[in-house]
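Thread title: Can someone regenerate the structure for this chain?

I was given the following input by a collaborator and told the matching structure tokens would be attached. They weren't. Posting the sequence so someone can regenerate them.
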Amino acid sequence: MKKSYVRMNGNDNCLSLGNIIDLIKKVSNNSSASQTEIFCTLFNINDVNATTISNYCIGIRAIGLEYRDYIEKLYIKYSNDNNVFMNTISSILNILNNNVSRYDFDDINSDNKLNILIEELFKIAKKDKNINQNFISNINNKNNYDSFIEFLYYAVCENKQPIYKQDISIEIDKKELEKYLKIKLYFGQTYYSSLIELAKKGNSYAQCEVGSLYFSGDINGYPEYDKSYEYYYASAKKNQPKACWMVANLMITNKVQYNFDIMWEYLNKSISFGSAAGYNTLGICYLNGKTPDNNISIDKAIKYFKISGEMGYSYAFNNLGKIYENSGDIDKAIQYYKISADMCESWALNKVGEYYRKNGNLELAFIYYNKAIECPIKERNPYAYYNLATYYYKNGFNQLNIDKSNEKYEEYMSMFEKLKK
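Best answer:
Regenerated them for you:
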């Protein structure tokens, strides 16, 4: 399976931040208007790394949490105060018209350049398959000021990225898949029993899922790794990509008896099917010397972590960050942790929150900690609760309008203890 990023700028079918910035440059009278200038204007900042902006705009990296949070907060205020975007849009008009002026609502809504920009954004929105007709109809009834806000909010906060195009070369057994989907889609009272029965009959899709259920403890209330391996192995022999990876993963993590030959065979089999998790695990193997020659290779580990990360696997960015943090390059480490955090990986969100707290940026730390506890509970990092409880609700930070709160402290410490087990 080949997997590559869908470019979100220069793509007339995608209402993205990259396309908004590209169109502002295209419509502007100012030929020297830069991507960086427009980005900084939209997010009210003084400077940002040009490569980071490019990655956001191209669509190969999720837009940074702090930027999404900035637009989200303005948008919430906007429902009660129409003026909150006035400075932002006035500054965009200065770029469009290559001047320095103050604009009121009438000026904004009658501006020819903004009108052209909105018309072009409409054209893209109508072709974006991820946008429903209600969104188009809603904006169609708004003035240019409000329309630009809706387009910007969608592009930054709602438009999911990165997205991928894939060339899947896995053989699908349609009869097996149909039987599995009948159980999966028509969820009944005996769902687990039916799924196990189908797995015992040799259905590879059911075998893979039953392996997952035993792994997570959903069958008997506690993880049963030997049972999990049994079902995953049966599924892996029929070339199920996830099952191939899990056979290797269960061994590498010492949850079942380790057999290098089997581990290496099925790990590489998962990679042949394009498994991002498989590439990440291969990186771990080179990091720990679990290879045919038993040699550690940091360079090869980095190589495979990067491949995995480029395929959208957030944990690979965590592993890259750890390599650079262990080598003392904290700036490089944080770059990778932030990529993972921007993909909403809870451990990385907490890690970046700690970085900002230790460097005195309490507002950003608070944003990242809170985002970490919004992740699905099975992926949630418990220490984000600890940090919120200890540094904010116990001590209180008046500059963030957070008062001491015994209730919040107790609630978050309770969640910390529960998830830490």
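The beta strands are 2-5, 164-167.
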